[in-house]
Amino acid sequence: MQNLIWVALGGIVGAVSRYLIGEYTARHFNASFPVATLFINFAGSFIIAFFLIWTSERVLADPRWRLLVAVGFCGAFTTFSSYAFETFKLFEQKAVGLMFLNIAANNLAALAAVVVGVVLARRVA
Asked: Which own/partner contact pairs does 120-125 have at CB distance under 8 Å and 24+ positions apart?
């Protein structure tokens, strides 16, 4: 039961963070490209990579932190299902160029974020 509380707490923060980023980008960016999803996928990929490497290779962390951050926060924060649906909608709207840009940007940005997260986590004492 206690593990569920850690996951739920992380999930609350992750879901609220995702919502706030979506609201911010809706006000400040063009709606024709899903900027919020791209940013969230990039940030979530960085956070999970940095956190998991840092807490498994650099510092001794209580296993509940993994539940809170990796499972709860990142699970609620990252948006693969939104990414997939938005990609399909771009296809449906015959915005094939934007669709391929979305696929490339999300995948390349997420992989780049993982690499940066791993490198930085391995450099932090």
From this structure: 120/50, 121/49, 121/50, 121/51, 121/52, 121/53, 121/54, 121/57, 121/58, 122/53, 122/54, 122/57, 122/58, 124/54, 124/58, 125/58
